[in-house]
């Protein structure tokens, strides 16, 4: 996968990987309830609204919006625009890359994060990362970084949609 630099919202094609759509959203935002799929059980778990849990890797701007889009081959996240530095970059992982997954207290190597998620070895280099400056904002298709999460009352958000090929 080649590195792509993003200067403005738009649609970006990653041949053999998928399509990424980046758009602006206006707030203020509120923390939605999260519906997370139970793997292999066919039943969803609904979590109550919690401050700071926006952008779990699912739509976060509209309460009641379906939060599990993976079934449709699409992953969506909403990031706090005030916490980002443009241009953004999309690239594959590099040895030693680290980020702080949303909900975790400490940083983690991207390699270890993907292993923990049981992403097959041959797919790990195909997982795109969204970068701002020297920070990983999201492991697309899986989780955003704690540093890019929305806060209650965030005024501007960046919506990132990733659809696998």
User: Which regions contain 5 or more consecutive residues with pLDDT less than 50?
Assistant: 31-72
CATH architecture classification name: 3-Layer(bba) Sandwich
Strand order of the largest sheet: 1-7-10-11-12
What is the string of helix and strand elements? EEEEEEEEEHHEEEE
Strand content: 35-45%
What is the CATH topology?
Phenylalanyl-tRNA Synthetase, Chain B, domain 3
Overall 3D geometry?
Answer: globular
Q: List the domain count as a whole number.
A: 1
Can you describe this structure?
- The chain is mainly beta.
- It has one domain (4-164): 3-Layer(bba) Sandwich (Phenylalanyl-tRNA Synthetase, Chain B, domain 3).
- Helix content is 7%, strand content 36%.
- It is built from 2 helices and 13 strands.
- The chain has helices at 110-116, 121-124, and strands at residues 4-6, 10-14, 18-26, 34-37, 44-47, 74-80, 88-91, 98-99, 108-109, 129-132, 135-139, 143-144, 156-164.
- It has a 5-stranded antiparallel β-sheet with strand order 1-7-10-11-12, with no helix packed on it. Strands 2-3-13-6 form a 4-stranded antiparallel β-sheet, with no helix packed on it. A two-stranded antiparallel sheet has the order 4-5.
- A hairpin with a 3-residue loop joins β2 and β3 (18-26).
- The radius of gyration is 15 Å and the shape is globular.
């Amino acid at each position: 996968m080649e590195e792509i630099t993003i200067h403005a919202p738009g649609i970006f094609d990653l041949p053999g990987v998928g399509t990424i759509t980046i758009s602006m959203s206006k707030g203020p935002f509120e923390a939605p309830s999260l519906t997370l799929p139970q793997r292999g059980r066919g039943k969803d778990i609904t979590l109550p609204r919690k401050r700071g849990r926006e952008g779990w890797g699912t739509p976060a701007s509209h309460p009641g919006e379906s939060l599990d889009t993976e079934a449709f081959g699409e992953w969506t996240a909403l990031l706090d625009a005030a916490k980002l530095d443009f241009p953004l970059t999309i690239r594959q992982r590099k040895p030693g890359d680290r980020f702080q997954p949303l909900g975790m207290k400490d940083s983690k190597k991207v390699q270890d994060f993907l292993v923990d998620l049981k992403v097959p070895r041959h797919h790990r280099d195909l997982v795109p990362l969204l970068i701002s400056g020297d920070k990983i904002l999201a492991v697309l298709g899986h989780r955003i970084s704690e540093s890019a999460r929305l806060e209650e009352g965030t005024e501007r958000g960046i919506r990132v949609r990733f659809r696998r090929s």
